[in-house]
Write a structure and sequence with these properties.
Layout (H helix, E strand, L loop, with lengths): L1 H30 L4 H14 L1 H12 L10 H19 L3 H18 L4 H17 L8 H14 L5 H11 L9 H13 L3 H10 L4 H9 L6 H14 L7 H12 L4 H19 L4 H6 L7 H13 L29 E2 L4 E2 L3 H27 L2 H21 L4 H13 L5 H9 L9 H16 L4 E3 L5 E3 L10 H14 L5 H18 L5 H17 L13 H13 L4 H17 L5 H13 L2 H18 L1 H7 L20 H6 L2 H7 L4 H5 L9 H14 L9 H15 L8 H17 L1 H18 L11 H23 L6 E3 L5 E3 L17 H13 L7 H14 L9 H17 L4 H17 L9 H10 L29 H17 L17 H21 L11 H7 L1
Antiparallel strand pairs: 1-2, 3-4, 5-6
Helix pairs in contact: 1-2, 1-3, 1-4, 2-4, 4-5, 4-6, 5-6, 5-7, 6-8, 7-8, 8-10, 9-10, 10-12, 12-14, 13-14, 13-16, 16-17, 17-18, 17-20, 19-20, 20-22, 21-22, 23-24, 24-26, 25-26, 26-27, 26-28, 27-28, 28-29, 28-33, 33-34, 33-35, 34-36, 35-36, 36-37, 36-38, 37-39, 37-45, 38-39, 38-40, ...
Subcellular location: Chromosome
Pfam families: Cnd3 (PF12719)
Keywords: Cell cycle, Cell division, Chromosome, DNA condensation, Mitosis
Length: 1040
């Protein structure tokens, strides 16, 4: 027995000595990483000499590291040393090294599942370092790796971010394998849900390059964190070659990166563009890079890429022939990619990328020369001479790039135009070069003028369909079939005809020539569209009405013999372009003609949707430019400019009614046309509702410019825009929804009058959306639930508009500059703000709730319940004492109307206590005249007994005479009350909730049975589900 004890003592001493040696080695590795290689040999020697006891002594010595929370440099060196030691064990020949590694991994996995977050963190950190350093041929079985992977996948969902980071780093070693697709799915799921920036960044860096991850990684370029966006471009540069990405993804990456709000992200994107894509993938050839970007489709991206490279100094501009080498063929042009020759003029055709390349370079040199010239003019002495020399260098380089003569330039452009549609993009780029040429010489200007006339007279491109009809190519509105071509021709024409009135005269001569067959009614639809497109170019580019007056053709003749007949043409595209010209003519003419307005109104009413859409655009523009009063006066009407709620509908099939109604009423009635609501086109820009919505939003924003429009009209328009924004019919119209979201963000903050409009529109807007009331359709329980939720969203949205702070007023300081007041809101000390404040909105809601009869339908009960829940969110100010007193009176009746809802009554009680605290003279009597005065100011028709009670009524069920409840029962009811308060909307009232007396069991049961009986009776009477709240729990789940 004694011998066994002595043996155990010797074993313990050896174990302690071994642990001391291991501890001494680990302590020495804490001081410096330079000792790690030497200490690795010492620790490996101990492992080989003390194999049976080494692992237990090693883990015992290492235990304090798992309790050390701080990430100090000393502890980090120990972790790195442990990883290096495990790597040496896996690489060594003895089997005891592999055995130690497997045992150590099991030890770490047990620590990774510990309850202590410090132990989990240190275990995941060591596992991560070990896995990242292990060689590929490490002798570790698949079962051990499966156990490691399973544990780490659990730790990816750990609540501590740093643990998630190290678990993700460790799993990144396995995510590339096809058999570990579950790891990739976990990473993608975690990336979409992760809130921590560093964890998102680690996930992003750990994703492998593949078609499944490319889109997810590119979406991270929109991350809110700058470091994540910057890391995204690092990942794209290192893992995704240029050829592996589609054209759309390439352009999306550059479009977001070069326009990022952070300079660091832009720099990282530029590094990706220069070092990886340009140098490595394209061998430094900029034109080759542009070919990967499809500049014909993504022209703006290609232009931004060129400007970024020019700004970075990557593109070398010296010792180049420029565009001149394409004007004359020579023997040294064999290396040019587009080497097809134009036979007659010996001109070499260029591709789209080359044309864009030189157009951007020339524009850059021109702007640089102008900027340096301006700096030279503002400087003196040596600095001015330096700037002048730089401007001269830019001009000289520009001259070497551009064609030598105007004749060469015209021949070059004409050759590309005649080469067909494949060179259409290159032709437009070359046309834009004309703005950089000098046409001061009379001979050059005459030659260029003839070329411009040739461009204007060039017929529209068209095809012949199966029935032999001509079908125009392009948008059928602009010259050449697209907006960009028309702008290029217009820019060249204005450059050539730069003298005052010369441009208008030259284009009018072309219009007169093209209009001749239209006057004689011998023109086909293609000729009509060609003539009208040139007319539109003239009207759009003319500086004033006087610049086109008394020219080759009079505008009255243009209206009578071209535009009005074109608007009545049988061809739909001719109608559209003619109506566009009518709108442009109306904007140019200071005195509107009755024929023009009548034709636009007729096209809006009777035309098909594309024609009506163009007419609505023209009418909205004219209404904004001239004002509604001028338009009605031009039509011979004497308008009152006041929309009435019962007069907003217009019978579009009645000619007399549509011709007599005012334009503002007619456009407003367009929202309710059934055929326009049903036939919403796929292209959102062609939606009539989008045009009308944007137009009326502008009218409300600029309401101070149109005093003839009444305030009631503003209210109705606001109601319509709210309904339009929350309508199912407009959910696919992204442009309209974006426009309205920006409008709603700024409109209430611009003026107190705007807040008053929102306040007046609140009740009509919610009532027009709520199902089952005001003539609105109901539907199934699921449909009703969705509609109610939409109405609640609209009500909360309008409350946010009311609570938005007003923009500070701009005042003119003594130095003549506009400055902003330091206050965030308007100064309203001179007058009460109850009309546009939240107090007015609260009084409107309260009177609406109280105004319903005692016997209500289920839809009405849910409606007043939703309004009451908005009421408790309103903030009352102590400065509005009269409004506070009136609200205290109304709150008594509001609570009576919703007394069946316990949670809502509690919120109203809290609001009542809050209002009582705000009332500085709560004992003072509130007269009937004061109440009526506020109601008149708010334009509310409501009979209120100002002498009524102010105290909120208690629950109508009688109290109980039972003694104090048991502890468990009280606690259970307290939990239930807390849950009900958590489910109810957060109230801004800070008062103490009123205490209610306890009910007896029998009274509570009787009240519950009574409510259930009433509910069943109401369900039988109406085909609609009854809920005490806005929507039931079941309906909410179903709608989601």
């Amino acid at each position: 027995m004694a011998g066994r004890r002595s043996m155990d003592d010797r074993e313990a001493r050896k174990h302690n000595q071994l642990a001391q040696k291991i501890g001494k080695i680990l302590d020495e590795t804490r001081t410096s990483s330079a000792t790690h290689n030497r200490k690795l040999k010492d620790l490996s020697s101990l492992l080989s000499q003390s194999q049976p006891h080494f692992f237990s002594a090693f883990t015992k010595t290492l235990a304090p590291l798992f309790d050390f929370q701080r990430r100090a440099p000393a502890s980090e060196r120990v972790v790195h040393f442990l990883a290096a030691f495990c790597r040496s064990c896996a690489s060594g020949a003895p089997s005891h090294g592999t055995s130690f590694l497997i045992n150590f991994l099991h030890f770490l996995l047990a620590a990774a599942a510990a309850a202590s977050k410090t132990a989990r963190f240190r275990a995941c950190q060591i596992i991560s370092e070990i896995i990242l350093r292990l060689p590929d041929d490490a002798d570790v079985g698949n079962e051990q790796w499966d156990e490691v992977i399973e544990t780490l996948m659990h730790r990816v969902k750990d609540k501590v971010p740093v643990i998630r980071i190290y678990a993700i780093r460790a799993l990144s070693r396995f995510v590339n394998g096809s058999e570990n697709s579950d790891i990739l799915d976990l990473f993608l799921e975690a990336l979409s849900l992760e809130q921590n920036v560093e964890v998102r960044k680690t996930l992003l860096l750990s994703l492998p390059p593949s078609s499944a991850t490319s889109r997810v990684i590119i979406d991270c370029t929109l991350d809110e964190s700058e470091s994540v966006r910057k890391a995204t471009y690092c990942v794209l540069a290192n893992k995704f070659p240029l050829q592996s990405l589609s054209i759309k993804l390439r352009t999306l990456i550059l479009q977001r990166g070069l326009a990022d709000r952070s300079d660091a992200v832009v720099k990282e994107c530029l590094k990706l563009l220069k070092d990886e894509w340009l140098v490595n993938c394209c061998k430094g050839d900029t034109v080759e890079l542009l070919k990967y970007l499809d500049v014909e489709t993504y022209e703006l991206v290609g232009e931004s890429v060129m400007l970024a490279l020019l700004k970075a100094g990557v593109v070398r501009l010296h010792d180049v022939d420029g565009i001149q080498k394409y004007t004359f063929s020579s023997s040294d042009n064999a290396g040019v990619e587009e080497s097809g020759e134009f036979a007659q003029h010996n001109i070499q055709l260029v591709g789209a990328e080359v044309a864009l390349y030189w157009r951007v370079i020339c524009r850059h040199l021109l702007m640089e020369a102008q900027e340096k010239g301006s700096d030279a003019a503002n400087a003196v002495g040596t600095e001015a001479a330096l700037y002048a020399a730089e401007a001269s260098d830019s001009n000289d380089l520009l001259e070497r790039i551009l064609p030598v003569t105007i004749s060469d330039y015209i021949d070059l452009v004409r050759a590309h135009i005649n080469a067909g549609p494949n060179y259409r993009f290159a032709s437009r780029q070359l046309l834009l070069l004309g703005a950089m040429l000098d046409f001061s010489d009379a001979t050059n200007r005459k030659m260029a003028s003839a070329f411009v006339r040739e461009l204007l007279l060039k017929p529209l491109e068209h095809e012949i369909d199966d029935e032999g009809n001509k079908v125009a190519l392009g948008d059928c509105i602009n010259l050449g079939g697209d907006r960009e071509w028309a702008d290029a021709v217009s820019a060249l024409a204005r450059k050539v005809h730069s003298a005052s009135g010369e441009f208008e005269e030259a284009v009018l001569e072309v219009v007169e020539e093209l209009a001749q067959p239209c006057r004689e009614r011998t023109a086909d639809s293609i000729q009509w569209m060609h003539c009208l497109s040139v007319t539109g170019l003239l009207l759009e580019s003319a500086k004033s009405f006087g610049s086109v007056r008394s020219k080759a053709i009079k505008l009255d003749d243009l209206l009578q013999f071209l535009l009005l007949p074109g608007a009545k043409h049988v061809h739909l595209d001719v109608q559209r372009v003619a109506i566009r010209c009518l709108g442009l003519l109306g904007l140019l003419d200071r005195k509107l003609s009755k024929e023009l307005i009548d034709q636009l109104r007729q096209s809006f009413v009777d035309g098909p949707p594309p024609t009506s859409r163009m007419a609505s655009t023209a009418l909205i523009d004219l209404l904004l430019w001239h004002g509604p009063w001028e338009i009605e006066r031009a039509s011979g009407k004497n308008p009152d400019m006041q929309l009435q709620d019962n007069q907003t509908s217009v019978n579009f099939s009645d000619v007399d009614e549509t011709s007599s109604v005012e334009l503002l009423h007619l456009l407003y009635a367009g929202f309710d046309r059934d055929d326009w609501i049903i036939s919403v086109p796929s292209d959102e820009s062609e939606s009539i509702h989008a045009v009308l919505g944007e137009g009326f939003a502008k009218i409300l924003l600029l309401s101070n410019k149109y005093p003839s429009i009444s305030a009631s009209t503003h209210q109705l328009v606001m109601v319509k825009l709210i309904c339009l924004y929350f309508s199912d019919h407009t959910k696919e119209l992204q442009r309209l929804r974006q426009c309205l979201s920006v409008f709603f963000e700024h409109y209430p903050s611009l003026s107190p009058k705007h807040k008053e409009v929102v306040s007046k529109a609140f009740i009509p807007a919610v009532k027009s959306i709520w199902p089952g009331i005001n003539g609105n359709a109901g539907g199934s329980a699921h449909t009703v639930s969705i509609k109610r939720k939409r109405a609640v969203q609209a009500s909360r949205f309008m409350l946010q508009m009311m609570q938005a702070p007003l923009y500070a007023k701009e005042t003119k300081a003594g130095n003549g500059y506009n400055t902003r007041d330091s206050a965030e809101t308007y100064d309203n000390s001179d007058e009460s703000s109850v009309e546009w404040g939240e107090e007015g909105l609260g009084i409107r809601i309260a009177t609406e709730v109280v105004g319903f009869p005692a016997k209500k339908t289920p839809a009405e009960r849910s409606y007043i319940s939703a309004l009451s829940r908005i009421l408790v969110l309103i903030k009352f100010r102590p400065t509005e004492q009269h409004a506070v007193k009136l609200m205290r009176r109304l709150l008594f009746y509001v609570n009576e109307a919703v007394s069946s809802e316990k949670d809502l009554s509690k919120e109203l009680n809290r609001l009542a206590e809050h209002l009582k605290a705000l009332d500085e003279h709560h004992d003072q009597e509130f007269s009937q005249e004061e109440a009526n005065q506020i109601l008149r100011r708010l334009e509310i028709s409501f009979e209120l007994d100002a002498g009524g009670p102010m105290a909120v009524p208690q629950t109508p069920v009688p109290g109980s005479a039972r003694p104090t409840r048991k502890r468990r029962q009280a606690r259970r009811e307290e939990w239930s009350s807390d849950e009900e308060l958590a489910a109810s909307p957060t109230s801004v009232a800070t008062g103490v909730p009123a205490t209610a007396s306890a009910r007896s069991q029998r009274a509570s049961k009787t009240a519950a049975l009574t409510r259930m009986a009433k509910r069943e009776t109401n369900i039988d009477e109406e085909d609609e589900s009854e809920v005490s709240d806005v929507t039931s729990e079941e309906e909410s789940d179903g709608s989601e």
